[in-house]
Design goal:
- By secondary structure, the chain is mainly alpha-helical.
- The chain folds into three domains: 55 residues; 29 residues; 42 residues, no CATH class.
- Helix content is 65%, strand content 9%.
- The chain contains four helices and three strands.
- A three-stranded antiparallel β-sheet has the order 2-1-3, with no helix packed on it.
- β1 and β2 form a beta hairpin.
- α3 packs antiparallel against α4.
- The radius of gyration is 44 Å and the shape is elongated.
Length: 155
C-alpha cells in the first residue's frame, strides 16, 4: 500500500519534469493567415495552401541596459552619501553640545570652589559613615552633604 503511494508520487514527479523540459525547449512560431475574403487569423500551425501565409516574429522584451543599472546604483550611492553626511552633521552638532555642557559644568564648579565648605561637607560625611557604617546612605543629610561636596570641591 505504501509503495504504491510512493510509485504514484515518483510518476507524478517525472511527468512534471518531462513537461517542464519539453516547454523549455519549445520555440513558438506564429503564422498570420489571410483568407481570400481578407479575414486574418493567427495560428501556431502553418496556413492552408489557399490562404496567404506570413510568419510573425515577436521581439523579446527589452532588457534594461547596463547604463540604466549603473545609473540606479549611482543614485543609490548618492542617496547613501547624503544620508551619511546628515548623520555626521548631527553627530558633530551633538558632540559640540556635549562639549559645551561639560565646559559650563566645569566653569560652575570652578566658580563655586570653596575649600572651607568642601572640607566641612566631607568631614560631616565621614562622621556619618563612622557613626552608622551600614545605613549612612539612607540618611537625607548624607545626600545633602554629598551634593555640597560636589558643588564646593570642584569635582
Amino acid at each position: 500500500m505504501e509503495s504504491s503511494k510512493i510509485a504514484r508520487r515518483v510518476r507524478l514527479g517525472l511527468c512534471v519534469l518531462a513537461c517542464t523540459l519539453a516547454s523549455a525547449g519549445a520555440h513558438a512560431q506564429i503564422f498570420k493567415c489571410t483568407g481570400d475574403s481578407g479575414n486574418v487569423s493567427y495560428s501556431d500551425q502553418p496556413c492552408s495552401s489557399s490562404q496567404k501565409s506570413e510568419t510573425v516574429t515577436i521581439d523579446p522584451a527589452p532588457v534594461q541596459p547596463e547604463e540604466a543599472g549603473k545609473l540606479a546604483t549611482d543614485k543609490e550611492k548618492e542617496r547613501l552619501q547624503r544620508q551619511a553626511q546628515r548623520k555626521r552633521a548631527e553627530r558633530e552638532k551633538l558632540d559640540l553640545s556635549i562639549a559645551d555642557s561639560k565646559a559650563k559644568i566645569a566653569k560652575m564648579k570652578a566658580d563655586n570652589y570653596d575649600p572651607e565648605k568642601c572640607m566641612s561637607a566631607r568631614s560631616k560625611m565621614a562622621a556619618m559613615k563612622r557613626r552608622d557604617p551600614i545605613l549612612y546612605k539612607a540618611d537625607v543629610s548624607y545626600f545633602e552633604y554629598q551634593q555640597a561636596a560636589e558643588l564646593y570641591c570642584g569635582n
